[in-house]
Amino acid sequence: MSLVSLLPRWTPDRWNQPLDRAMLDALEPQAAIAGLLGPGPQWTFTTGHMRTLGDMLHAWVGWGRLPVLASPDEARATTGQGDFIPQLVRYLKRIDHLGLIDADFAEHIAAHHWLAADLYSVMDVLELTAFLGATTGPKVRILEIGGGWGRVPEMLMRLFPGKVEYVMVDAVPISLVSAEAYLRAMLPEATFGSLARGDSYQPGSYDVYFVPSWELEQLGTARFDVVINIESFQEMTQERVDYYLGWFDLMIADGGIAYIANSRDYVFTGDWNFPTSWRTLSRHRTPRSWTPDNSTHILRKEVGHFTAANRIIDAAFETTIPTDPHHPAVSTLRQIIEARKA
Asked: At what angle do helices 116-131 and 84-95 cross, to 10 degrees?
């Protein structure tokens, strides 16, 4: 059986999931006084007009909002690259170790309303699972901070049904509420728990569990095979990034994987103080790299100190950072800097 048969078949009403306004109204005052573990200023905004998931889509996806059927002109206007979607699919084909990108893949994504962000989800699943070793439990236990509407757990659970247990942590109430609404609609066969609804966390109790960032202690002594952050550390302060990396180190099991994909020249341009026991397995640019210093960084928690070895991989990565002023990532960053000055 082709794995394509497991992929989502979205419809045009995918983004019409209603939001739980009562839960949102309960969470927002808590977030406002959460301090370090609350949302950053760019994620503090009025949400009273928001009623569906679609109202948040633009804030989450950037280049990822591009439909896979977009014309070259539309792609160029969004990403600076007329061949962005074909380039992304070619990259997926090169890294495909699951046999997913077969002859039926292009027809499937065209017929089922996919966006570039959905191709990102396939990319994240392929890259993450390529480095994931054996786990001790019946399910791979994954912890993500800042998971948007839940695109990564949705893709993982589609491709590996019954094999994944996922905890979503978020500081932004509208994101937490949106992710729950979306995943409940898209994965009706899954079991869900939510701290905001009074569900206590016990490992193995739910397929997906949602927890606000200011309630991290409710996860107790649980340990995870994978910790993930994709494009939200890049919007934090040094203090917040240091805190979450330290917390990740407490939560990740020995031999576990850290999957960290962020820009390092956007809002946060400080130091990435990874624990010294995290060994870099790969650090590389991908088609999602929308600023020059933007990488997917995959590390494993081991016994030892790997700062020196990691520094060599970082130095090698730095030679791949584009500097040509006409490169789409370079021009995108330049436009961001100019907009800040305006």
From this structure: 20
The residues, any chain, with a CB within 8 Å of residue 73's CB and separated by 6 or more, are: 82
Ordered DSSP codes for 182-218: HHHHH-TTS-EEEGGGTPPP-TTS-SEEEEEGGGGGG
Q: Are 35 and 73 in contact (CB under 8 A)?
A: no
Q: What is the pLDDT of residue 159?
A: 96
pLDDT at 62 over 90: no
Phi, psi values for residue 171, rounded to 5°: -90, -15
- Range 233-242 burial, b when 16+ CB lie within 10 A, else e: bbbbeeebbe
* Angstrom distance (rounded) from CA 141 to CA 135: 9
Helix (H, G, I), strand (E, B) or coil at 115: strand
pLDDT of residue 71: 97
State the pLDDT confidence band at 137, using cuts at 50, 70 and 90: confident
- The distance from CA 28 to its chain's CA centroid, rounded to whole angstroms, is 22
Rounded CA separation 200/1 (Å)? 38
- List alpha helices for the chain, DSSP H: 21-32, 57-61, 72-79, 84-95, 105-111, 116-131, 151-159, 173-186, 238-251, 307-318, 328-341
Spatial distance between the Cα atoms of 198 and 204, rounded to a whole number of angstroms: 17
Nearest to 143 by CA among 198, 190, 213: 213
Domain boundaries, the chain: 3-341
The one-character DSSP state at 220 is T
Q: What is the pLDDT of residue 1?
A: 60
Architecture (CATH level 2) of domain 3-341: 3-Layer(aba) Sandwich (3.40)
Instruction: Assign 282 to helix, strand or coil.
Output: strand
List Cβ neighbours of 338 (8 Å cut-off, separation of 6 or more): none
Nearest residue to 150 via CA among 127, 170, 130:
170
CA atoms within 13 A on the CB side of 307: 6
Average pLDDT, the chain: 94
Q: Is 101 helix (H, G, I), strand (E, B) or coil?
A: coil
